[in-house]
Write a sequence for this structure.
């Protein structure tokens, strides 16, 4: 559906370098990355709103690299919704209709969108009088009204209150399920990515760091940058020896041998269990250690445990921390399955 | 109540001085002529003709600025390119050049010794001592004010609105007409008012290029030179009153009231 090959964009100091992406029709694709990675630039390049200096963008088999934005059939929705302030909600939603060839069914579609998004009571008002959640719905309706093949969403939920976010997220999921539109969404929120996306890519300083299914990205990061970004807090450079590796004096079991003799291992903090006695189960990696730090993260504690000279980070619920009587200096055991160890 | 320190009193007295400095001469001039004299002046055909000429040429200058200045203001607001600062400085030149120099500069292109002047005289266009000449001068001095006002107006409109419009299928032209221009309307109007206000007040450049036909500032100057202060004041009062009324009316009529739901 969307095929991007070797895309390059130069914007003064900033540049996108050799972007390759392939997105299937009907996918819900999520693009993640730190601030300044170039996510919005890539979005605008796909929409034709930023000049491209190399590579190709094909959509539905058609080369769109040099096509002007109005002929691409790609909707774009910005973080600030960008509703036209001088037009009523109705005129905002129907703005693009006059440029469409198929206008017969437009009234039906308008009615359906207004119903689905629950914005019937807003139609005569102007954008400045609407709340964030309402603006969001109107912006969605406006983009969907022209029946685009692809819709690009630039952090659509980040400006909303937490309570609205869940609601709009479900709405996006429903719209995606009911339509044949390919969604391409930029976000930095993992729970959004995990609930909505089928596939994802991680971007870093103008290049794609990893792309694949959302599950692979979170569970099998291919570089220490991605591992760090998706919240793998325990990343260690290691030397491999079959299914064993060594971090200084610790021997750790890994699920399979690595093709290189050196590399990294990573363990998600939620996969590390803390206990007062050694764990007697199939868990292969278990070490005695000392609690060095406890960081309050709201619902959870991040507990730092040093095992000899290596510090592991583990996530523990507040209740469990109380039960275990965790405190700085306490002697504990940490354990994790060999299958929880990611190697790269 | 908090005690006001010396800084407060210095600010207040400076403020008062500035206001008095601006208002005193103006009020004095406006109240000097008697009612009978004002009435007599407005029945003077020469006065009416010159005020009308002033207004009409200034509006023509604003109109020309609108047509050629609007696209330029848009380009300057939206794009970044090498040499943009140079272009902006060139546009500001008429503001900083002494007024008689502007007149002399224009005449040196429009004269018979210059190919452009020769070409124009062959086409029957005369700059020296003509309404065309006055409009040329007024456009020269007024255009920068229009372009600068509109440029900052365009800059304040988010390019994302234009991006969304284009993604919905609108061409660049459509987007400009349906989104950018309506949102910049206020700045267009402010620019037009600034441009024509500047044009109406021009004297130095016009007097070099066209003493006749006589615009109001030249007529005021001539009356002052020939008959003295007393005879120039009523014309000045009428010019000020008419211009202020026109600008005020333009603002009230053309600026839409704030929309509410």
């Amino acid at each position: 559906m969307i095929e991007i090959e070797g895309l390059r964009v130069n914007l003064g100091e900033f540049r996108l370098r050799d972007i390759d992406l392939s997105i299937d029709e009907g996918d819900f694709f999520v693009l993640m990355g730190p601030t300044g990675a170039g996510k919005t630039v890539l979005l605008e390049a796909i929409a034709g709103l930023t000049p491209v200096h190399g590579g190709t963008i094909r959509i539905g088999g058609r080369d769109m690299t040099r096509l002007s934005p109005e002929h691409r059939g790609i909707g774009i929705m910005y973080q600030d919704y960008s509703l036209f302030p001088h037009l009523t909600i109705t005129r905002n939603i129907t703005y693009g209709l006059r440029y469409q060839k198929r206008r017969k069914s437009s009234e039906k579609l308008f009615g359906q969108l207004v119903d689905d998004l629950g914005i019937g009571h807003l139609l005569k008002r102007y954008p400045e009088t609407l709340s964030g959640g309402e603006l969001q719905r109107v912006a969605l309706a406006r983009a969907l009204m022209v029946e685009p093949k692809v819709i690009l969403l630039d952090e659509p939920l980040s400006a909303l209150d937490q309570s609205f976010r869940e609601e709009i997220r479900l709405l996006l999921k429903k719209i995606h399920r009911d339509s044949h539109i390919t969604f391409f969404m930029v976000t930095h929120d993992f729970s959004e990515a995990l609930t909505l996306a089928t596939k994802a890519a991680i971007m870093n300083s103008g290049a794609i760091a990893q792309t694949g299914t959302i599950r692979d990205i979170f569970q099998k990061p291919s570089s220490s940058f991605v591992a760090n970004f998706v919240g793998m807090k325990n990343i260690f450079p290691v030397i491999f020896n079959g299914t064993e590796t060594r971090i200084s004096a610790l021997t750790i079991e890994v699920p399979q041998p690595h093709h290189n003799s050196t590399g990294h291992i990573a363990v998600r903090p939620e996969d590390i269990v803390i206990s007062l006695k050694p764990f007697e189960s199939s868990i292969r990696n278990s070490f005695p250690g000392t609690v060095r730090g406890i960081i309050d993260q709201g619902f959870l504690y991040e507990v730092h445990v040093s095992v000899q000279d290596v510090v592991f980070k583990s996530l523990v619920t507040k209740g469990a921390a109380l039960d275990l009587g965790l405190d700085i200096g306490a002697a504990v055991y940490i354990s994790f399955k060999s299958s929880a160890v990611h190697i790269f | 109540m908090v005690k006001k320190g010396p800084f407060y009193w210095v600010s207040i007295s400076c403020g008062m001085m500035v206001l008095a400095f601006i208002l005193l001469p103006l009020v004095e001039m406006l109240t000097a002529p008697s009612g009978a004299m004002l009435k007599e002046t407005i029945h003077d055909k020469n006065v009416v003709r010159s005020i009308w000429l002033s207004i009409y040429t200034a509006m023509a200058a604003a109109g020309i600025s609108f047509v050629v200045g609007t696209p330029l203001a848009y380009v300057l607001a939206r794009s970044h390119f090498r040499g943009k600062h140079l272009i902006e400085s060139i546009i500001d030149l008429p503001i900083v050049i002494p007024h008689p120099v502007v007149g002399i500069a224009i005449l040196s292109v429009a004269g018979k010794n210059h190919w452009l002047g020769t070409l124009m005289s062959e086409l029957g266009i005369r700059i020296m001592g003509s309404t065309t000449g006055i409009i040329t001068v007024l456009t020269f001095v007024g255009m920068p004010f229009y372009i600068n006002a509109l440029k900052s107006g365009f800059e304040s409109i988010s390019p994302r609105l234009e991006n969304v419009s284009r993604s919905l299928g609108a061409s660049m032209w459509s987007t400009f007409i349906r989104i950018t221009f309506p949102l910049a309307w206020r700045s267009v109007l402010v620019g037009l008012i600034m441009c024509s206000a500047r044009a109406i007040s021009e004297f130095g450049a016009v007097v070099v290029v066209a003493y006749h036909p006589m615009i109001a500032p030249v007529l005021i100057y001539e009356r002052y030179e020939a008959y003295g202060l007393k005879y120039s004041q009523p014309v000045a009062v009428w010019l000020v009153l008419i211009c202020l009324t026109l600008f005020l009316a333009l603002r009230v009529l053309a600026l839409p009231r704030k929309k509410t739901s």
In short: DSSP finds twelve helices and no strands in chain B. The CA atoms of residues 55 and 200 of chain B lie 7 Å apart.
